[in-house]
């Protein structure tokens, strides 16, 4: 039995009265990979369509041929223009021979809207005006472009610090534009980790969003509450019949919501920030496209929420820091007032320090050392105060001794007095030496090296003059001092400050690199670098410097040899001279147990004083480090009190 022939637009009946050109054209349409329709330009009706067109519109060939081009479109096109006007204009352009055509929005038999890109060609048929119209569904491409552009706008909003609510609303609208019939929302998880807070749902009923505020998450708390509780996606295709919504259906029933898929929003893979939900008014399960959109939405929402949380956290830290600064400022102000009160008797010393401070402040980079004056002055109070206590006590004992002489002085009394006088003398000397050391060390920072004489000299000759006294200072210890220099290292610089720098570096080696009776070698070398600068190195094979100490070697008053000859200023002064009047830099290479090398990188011609960056900048914490020069206040006062109590 032969099957009945299929007579339709793509397979016309042999007896159909079709023009010969139309028959040939019809055969071409049948094999086209795109949807193609043949349109009568006068009536706007379809007179032929291929199988691709039938599949695109979800209609049979006969159904398509019973419609006009206007019938295949929604009532209004983009920009809210009536569809009839747009199609009439399109047909008119085709009649005039134009081939360019705008995109049209079409409707399938199922009511799905899609955007069609048009390619039209007028056909030369005698007695009729026909148009070949190729329709390409570009909905997916348009949606993809809209999604990419939307993501870019959202990331820009996040980067510019747009309010979280506005950013999330824009995200929800972007996702809703990608899928028909979807309504999106974001709920945030409160800081207590269990309470829901609505954040965005621009097209969901406001009353419904408000009803979610304050609900708790749990194992059966609707889609969103359960998703946050499980930390995993929850798909509810039928709200009314799902046990997760038992007790919550009354919230959605008035608004016709029937499906809800919710996905938690994470920080990385850890803490849950909230949830993203997609609602539909019909029963529905997610497809691949929906899953992709969910991933985009949760990722962008997570970025926006985390950015806002971090900004709020930073604001809290900033406020707390301001409170701490204000509190600390008050404490420092009170401490300063107290220090000024107890240091009135040190007026002359403070005047000297004030003069030194004024000199330092006049140099740009010494402005930061101004605060150091108050710290050193405060530390002077301990040795001078102790000296005053001892002197006052001895004066009183002298009066007592004078009275004892009038009534007969016992030898035991005199012996006690002499012993106490000896101890008092040693205390006075130690405390006054400590005060003098502080004042001298502080003044050394402000020495104006620019006053040194500038002249031309050979570096090798200068090192040759320095070597004998350096060897003499190392004679009492098993330390070898060597010096080598490339010939003809001519310099136009300041030999005096340069000599002081080398001496300070040498003294630093003697004090720190070779402790006790340890022996070793100190090498002083000079050479010209490839860039023309001169490298002058002071190298030892001693103990080396620990990394945590190497970072602070140039800080003023920082020393690990307090009381053993270390003032904490040698390297600080050397650094200031090198970077200031000499116009170079100083580099340190060191490793514990393998020695240290200080390298001066100097220009052969020193800059003019105005260019040399005269002055230094005190590192942060210098004021606190100045306290290392004085014996702890409690210990020093205890000595004086013990002496006074002995009388």
From TrEMBL:
Q: Which reaction does it catalyse?
A: ATP + protein L-histidine = ADP + protein N-phospho-L-histidine
According to the record, the residues making up region (Disordered) are 627-647
Q: Where would you find the membrane-spanning parts of this chain?
A: none
Q: Does the keyword Phosphoprotein apply?
A: yes
Q: Where is the composition biased (Basic and acidic residues)?
A: 627-640
Q: Which PROSITE patterns match?
A: HIS_KIN
Q: Which Gene3D superfamilies match?
A: 1.10.287.130, 3.30.450.40, Histidine kinase-like ATPase, C-terminal domain, PAS domain
**UniProt keyword annotations, A-Z:** Phosphoprotein
SUPFAM superfamilies recorded for this chain?
ATPase domain of HSP90 chaperone/DNA topoisomerase II/histidine kinase, GAF domain-like, Homodimeric domain of signal transducing histidine kinase, PYP-like sensor domain (PAS domain)
Q: Which residues form the Histidine kinase domain?
A: 375-606
Query: Coiled-coil segments, which residues?
Result: none
E.C. designation(s): 2.7.13.3
Q: Name one GO molecular function term.
A: phosphorelay sensor kinase activity
Q: Which Pfam families match?
A: GAF_2 (PF13185), HATPase_c (PF02518), PAS_8 (PF13188)
What name appears for this protein in its UniProt entry? Answer: histidine kinase
Q: Tell me the organism.
A: Massilia glaciei
